[in-house]
Amino acid sequence: MTNPTEHALPANSMVESREGDFGCTVMDLRKLMELRSTDGVDQINVHYGGVMNLCSRLKTNPVEGLSGNPADLEKRKQVFGQNLIPPKKPKTFLELVWEALQDVTLIILEIAAIISLVLSFYRPPGEENKQCGLPVSSPEDEGEAEAGWIEGAAILFSVIIVVLVTAFNDWSKEKQFRGLQNRIEKEQKFAVIRNGHIIQLPVAEIVVGDIAQIKYGDLLPADGILIQGNDLKIDESSLTGESDHVKKSLERDPMLLSGTHVMEGSGRMVVTAVGINSQTGIIFTLLGANEGEEEEKKKKAKTQDGVALEIQPLNSQEGIDNEEKEKKAAKLPKKEKSVLQGKLTRLAVQIGKAGLIMSAITVLILILYFVIDNFVIHRRPWLSECTPIYIQYFVKFFIIGITVLVVAVPEGLPLAVTISLAYSVKKMMKDNNLVRHLDACETMGNATAICSDKTGTLTMNRMTVVQAYIGDTHYHQLPSPDVLVPKVLDLIVNGISINSAYTSKIMPPEKEGGLPRQVGNKTECALLGFVTDLKQDYHAVRNEVPEEKLYKVYTFNSVRKSMSTVIEKPSGGYRMYSKGASEIILRKCNRILDKRGEVVPFKNKDRDEMVRTVIEPMASEGLRTICIAYRDFNDGEPPWDNESEILTELTCIAVVGIEDPVRPEVPEAIAKCKRAGITVRMVTGDNINTARAIATKCGIVTPGDDFLCLEGKEFNRLIRNEKGEVEQEKLDKIWPKLRVLARSSPTDKHTLVKGIIDSTVGEQRQVVAVTGDGTNDGPALKKADVGFAMGIAGTDVAKEASDIILTDDNFTSIVKAVMWGRNVYDSISKFLQFQLTVNVVAVIVAFTGACITQDSPLKAVQMLWVNLIMDTFASLALATEPPTESLLKRRPYGRNKPLISRTMMKNILGHAVYQLTVIFFLVFAGEKFFDIDSGRKAPLHSPPSQHYTIIFNTFVLMQLFNEINSRKIHGERNVFAGIFRNLIFCSVVLGTFISQIIIVEFGGKPFSCTKLTLSQWFWCLFIGIGELLWGQVISTIPTQSLKFLKEAGHGTTKEEITKDAEGLDEIDHAEMELRRGQILWFRGLNRIQTQIKVVKAFHSSLHESIQKPKNQNSIHNFMTHPEFAIDEEVPRTPLLDEHEEENLEVPKAGTRVLLLDGEVTPYANKNNNAVDCSQVQIIASHSDSPLHSLETSV
């Protein structure tokens, strides 16, 4: 892929002297890693004399690993490089300021302010000319006229403030997410052997020469060469684009590349290239070669999981696709990211249109009035010396118009969304939710269905053997070793110790008197614990038969649901130990050991009897049953590759029942979900009786309910037609009642999730959350609206496909995510209710004021201040409300519930009526009421009047108290409930009040304010507090009686999308709205873009931080693996009716799922993935068991 360029060579030869210590150079190893399969084998054998010889050249021991001596490690880093790819520099504060300045409205305001400034210094000779027909100021106002520049300067100053606030927000958010990313980067670890011990090492610390342990589900952090492997299959599609899994073996293809996924098996490799010298790193360097595109690419390259920020793989194919996509993306609107963003964008566009029209009309009326008054009624001639004065008037009108627009457009909206999401994401970390995609947080609030794994999520994932059936006897308590025949005991101990991943082990407890720690695969740990309970030592057996001596290993995968290990017998011949799901293994047994340890025939009727008397009773108590068996091959070597012949005629040694207790907090969490209108379904690989027993304990199924518990086979039979294709109508009959899906494969899980999402039963499209931890859960996690991966047991592949990572693998954390999601939605609604009241009032006041008095009662600078408190501060105050339990007492809103409900519309209009009444009273009768001079029809540059200062002050104070009203949006009466829990809110309200006092008392000319007396202040405060009382009046009026109220901010209807979107791959509804109105400039949308950039900045950094991005450009988008190609480029299409009852679904338009369900996919059986739910137990970092997840199966 890379040509060692000429300039690289001399550099290399200089290093040569230092590298004399190692038997090969960076370049040699780079060239070696570019070879594939047999070429690689030849090169290793010819040039290096075999893998062992290569290890000695790299001064490492294939069994013990490196010594871990710091000087040696440092030297390796210098010679061969470090295992990280340098990240992109963050944007500087100045760049962010420049971005904030791109806002169209701000630019218009700046231009207007500059014109105003220039004109204010112009003193035309005709100034005194009465003929200009202007109310010319008296001599004592001359000083004031000199101060005409102040307004322009103040506008410029307030623009600077707005820009700095925006830039600072963006900057601090980016900083937060980088911090988060660094934390996660440090947590990314990989199993490496140093000094004979397996340790978990941060990925960045891995050096060339390290011996790494690899296991199913890993994402390789560096390039290496296989030293020893069991049944190893790798998914290299992220580098090659080939979807078939590649078998790796010492003889045929020992080359392992960074960024590829281990789909099956386990093994050890010697690391040969790290960081920018690894295959992924080389591709990165190539991408970064041309500066122009570098920006884009680096964003993608940012980082991902197992590769820990350090290294990301890249699809060569994807590289090309990305360029195509970028070209397309340049022409096409961006795809809509989330439901909320879609609704907000539409709403902002609508408000922006209205604001634009209002401001245009305002300017027109002002100019027409001025022209008609001067030139038509008073019949004055247009004098050239008066022109600058007229222009000054026109500029003033223009500024008023722009001010109306500024206030009309709620550019605080995107800010509120960003703040709310950023705040939630930060807090959710504490609730064990690591959010990788910001919008997942808000989508979770709408979730109507959760498909959860069983093991580890609903249960504690601490497995123990509690019952056993050995030699015709069912032991309800564990037997003591003396009861068992020595020969049988020996078979049990060997069958468990040898036939389980050597990485699964029982460690001494961390605290005195604690439980022993289980490391690795939990089911295997339970079995090893059983060996220890029988007073035997599994270590001794493993020392006698080290991993190198295992003749053949059939690792666990979701298709086999069993694991077998073959060893050579000292006397000649082979013995194979097998273990796995009891139904599966017993079907393959034709003999069994009796009480005396003798082998006796085991017929079908015996098997049925055993299922009835042993396995079903165990399963109905919620135990997982595992069968241990063996088979001897004495006559020559059988055909090992023909699995069906090998895995038959087994002899059953024992069946054990493993208990995994339900987490104590789960039943309550599930009850909360039910109250919140969320259906929980359990999808597990366990057998149906165990699954039903656990589901009953959790409260997923309650006796007397009308529900279904199905096994995977039965489920497929019911939903597929004769051709084996899934039929949506058949699926629609099943899923509403389905609560437990047992013995399911990852494909079944994906079929179910897709079926529920695409279903059109009911008024609303379902929003589905899924938990998963196995490599094969990728498609289901990708397909779901929100995918939760397990932080402890999850494989790197699952984490990469997910939206949120549960750092404690606990179901209750999902319920917390629902609460936060609903809270985000409510926070936005609170902010909207507040913001729109201000907008309606300010626009009407500016408009009517301008039309009647030729001047807006609220000046440009005042409007900008109102805008600042309304947008920035209020979004801060209302978007950071902490969630309360009451959020879980209502049903989900559904995808097309309007943002502004009728109750909110009632509040907005109700408060607007109060505020407008007050302000118009003050404008037209305020001077009489307060006995002061009127501020109406003041000449150009006249000093600020007390009259208009009172109007401005009252207006701001009313907003301030209405901010408190806005804390509740469902018509609650107590608006102060929990106000002291939100310190940000209290400080914002207080801060705004103090700033207002300073502005009024000391703001002077720039703010068009003059000092007020104490009694005037009290009147203003009194009117402001009236807002709170008025709020109580409004909440007394029942919403139902106000039939005329409309909602606003709907989702997009299905028809609109199909009508507008023909020919588009990706649709953004805002963009469509724009196309209809061709309104391409106004502040709200611009701000939304800025905020989306910020959200992207988050995304890039958040993702990087959090394992890896989901977006199409992520360097190794796990979903580009063809078998997972699930095309999510099309927005989700909600229906229009907003019923809150049953949120069912409309299909995602155009979602192509190439992963056909069921056996249809050739890959279903290849992904050795510890599948499904039940198998949450696998510990990502440690378990490299080939049996990787027995639990699943069983």
Automatic annotation (TrEMBL):
Keywords: ATP-binding, Calcium, Calcium transport, Calmodulin-binding, Cell membrane, Cell projection, Cilium, Flagellum, Ion transport, Magnesium, Membrane, Metal-binding, Nucleotide-binding, Phosphoprotein, Translocase, Transmembrane, Transmembrane helix, Transport. It is a multi-pass membrane protein. Its main location: membrane. The keyword Heme does not apply. InterPro entries: ATP_Ca_trans_C, ATPase_P-typ_cation-transptr_C, ATPase_P-typ_cation-transptr_N, ATPase_P-typ_cyto_dom_N, ATPase_P-typ_P_site, ATPase_P-typ_TM_dom_sf, ATPase_P-typ_transduc_dom_A_sf, ATPase_P-type_domA. The keyword Lipid biosynthesis does not apply. Its EC number is 7.2.2.10. Pfam families: ATP_Ca_trans_C (PF12424), Cation_ATPase (PF13246), Cation_ATPase_C (PF00689), Cation_ATPase_N (PF00690), E1-E2_ATPase (PF00122), Hydrolase_3 (PF08282). PROSITE patterns: ATPASE_E1_E2. GO terms for molecular function: ATP binding; ATP hydrolysis activity; calmodulin binding; metal ion binding; P-type calcium transporter activity; PDZ domain binding. Residues 45-121 form the Cation-transporting P-type ATPase N-terminal domain. Belongs to the cation transport ATPase (P-type) (TC 3.A.3) family. Type IIB subfamily. Interacts with PDZD11. Interacts with SLC35G1 and STIM1. Interacts with calmodulin. This is Calcium-transporting ATPase. It comes from Vulpes vulpes (Red fox). The gene is ATP2B4.
